[in-house]
Fold AIG1-type G domain-containing protein.
Amino acid sequence: AGKSALGNLLLGHTEFEVSDGFNSKTKKCCVKTLSIKGNTYDIVDTPGVFDTSQDDSLKEIAKFVHKCAYGIKAILFVLKKERFTDEQRNTLKEIGTFLGKDATNNIIVVFSHASPDQIKCKDKMRMAWRDVPLFSSFIQDIEFRWSVSPDPHHLDDDRQISEERLMEIKTFISNIREIYTTRQLEENLERQKEAKRLKEEEERRRREEERREKELTIFEMVAVGASIGTEAQPGLGTVVGGVIGLSFGLGRAIKRKL
């Protein structure tokens, strides 16, 4: 998606390995040091949730968050500008669920692989996603912290615009006041675990109720059959009805014991 390339642009030199194909080269979190307005930050290149196994990526990110004793200042989502697919929208939901609502205070969206016009004029970039309701809502939730990454292959074509875009991203980072902490992640993961447990419990309860309803339906059908048999042929009906009544009674007794 351009995460590693953006990291190198923010650093001002090449530190992160950049993929030259379709698959992300970043499999493990890689850390370098970034200075913004005299403040020092650790900039982390994480596995791409759109390029590798989503579960593996989120586990790797969670593992790194747990190592950050002072918390996370900013979370940069780097998205290819043409990737407004159902898969991407679902992944955004998954990430939001994984990190929790607290993380919206720390998220910055950066679009990569934009055209020169979109890099120069953000309104042209905005036109690419403004008609996607879920994404527009997501941008609103993060208080419109979004920007466009310069093209690393054409930095000198318009150095001023490239510097402006990089400075905009750095300013977003500096201006974030809330810190996303390990405690917030752990609490959110616990809520997810509890929600999953309740959902599974509800599903088991529903299946058990369906099973009981089927049993009752069978017993009712058999009992009705016995009644009809008694009316049609009294002698035969008495025997059959008696046997069926015994089975029905046992069924009820077994159910009470269960």
